[in-house]
Amino acid sequence: MADVVRVNKEGLERFCAAVFEKLGVPRKDAKVAADILVLADLRDKGSHGVARLGRYVEGLKKGIMVPTDKSQVVHETATTALIDGGRSLGQVVGHRAMALAIEKAKAHGTGFVTVRNSNHYGIAGYYALMAVPHGCIGISMTNAAPLVVPTFGRDALFGTNPIAVAVPAEGEPFLFDAATSVVPRGKLEVYERQGKPMPFGWAVDARGKGTTNATEVLENLGKRGGGGILPLGGEGEEFSGHKGYGLAMVVEILSSVLAGGAFGLGTYAAEGSANIAHFFGAIRVDAFRPLADVSRDLRTFLDQVRNSPKAEGHERVYVHGEKGFAFERECLAEGIPLGPKVVESLKKVGGDLGVPWSS
């Protein structure tokens, strides 16, 4: 991979954690936030990785995010809970909420936790994967700032709203982790940083027409001036963009409406508050069948998919999560690849806070 700097995982985690600590985040929580950011880069989801560290720094400095965990359980049953995030770091609140869902699932078979008044929590897959070592299926989703236009609309009304599901299997687990938009905002930012036109079909301009100008779309989104990212499937109904739009609405309902949090245009609407909402679930596999049997059968199913006939010109059929696990193994052996602009931004963040950069 050309024009990249290979960075050691542990060193990158220490650097990010040290940055969070400099801003008043307790060491334990700083490590959680850093681990989640770095895992995004490890799993080839750089749009949600350490390139975003500056945003968290800015959020902490402006008070949009508070450094110490202020989250509280405000309603609870044996299998459910509602948490008010208290404007804490989304990663910290998310980790606590998913851990609670897992605890409830281990005791009662299922556990579901909603969160309101939180912040951006990183990659959804991190939380879903938390459930796997406990013999549980993990579910994670979140709403986000309004970036995505509804089918036949031209104004962004809801977030990229990712869904993640992780299921234990023999060997590596199955992991589905994807936005309900064509791409996350971070993908547009990558093209903006590189000064390149983005693929046509990712987003629309203020008139609701397709565009390849990532900078224009991002600027319009920043001032809520119309246009935005398209839902999964793309523009209109011909390629089922209305289905991605519907999935985004499902995430919005389960995350924010259920929790009594902000939804649609309500996120990031008040000064000094993001008011992001999340939804977490854990389902104990052996509440249905023995874990070993389910894990074996899932492995058989995944192998069946992998070994199915290949389309002309292709050598492999991948199952969800497989590429990410392979990329992670490569990164652990050779280092995490970061673009030069990302490295420079990290050095600047560290320099401003007195945290030395080390690769």
Give a concise summary.
The protein is α+β, with helices and mostly antiparallel strands and 359 residues long. The protein has eleven helices and twelve strands.
What would you call the shape? globular
Low-confidence stretches: none
Task: Report the total helices.
Answer: 11
* End-to-end Cα distance: 17 Å
The CATH topology of the domain at 69-180 and 236-287 corresponds to Ribosomal Protein S8, Chain: A, domain 1
Q: What would CATH call the class of the domain at 69-180 and 236-287?
A: Alpha Beta
In the CATH hierarchy, what is the superfamily of the domain at 69-180 and 236-287?
Malate/L-lactate/L-sulpholactate dehydrogenase, NADPH binding domain
Task: Give a verbal description of the structure.
With 359 residues, this protein is an alpha+beta fold. Among the domains are: 69-180 and 236-287, Ribosomal Protein S8, Chain: A, domain 1; 183-229, Wheat Germ Agglutinin (Isolectin 2), domain 1, CATH 3.30.60. It is 40% helix and 16% strand. It contains eleven helices and twelve strands. It has helices at residues 9-22, 27-42, 53-62, 90-108, 124-130, 185-194, 214-222, 241-257, 291-306, 322-334, 340-353, and strands at 5-7, 72-76, 80-84, 110-118, 136-142, 163-167, 174-178, 203-204, 210-211, 228-229, 276-284, 336-338. The mean pLDDT is 95.
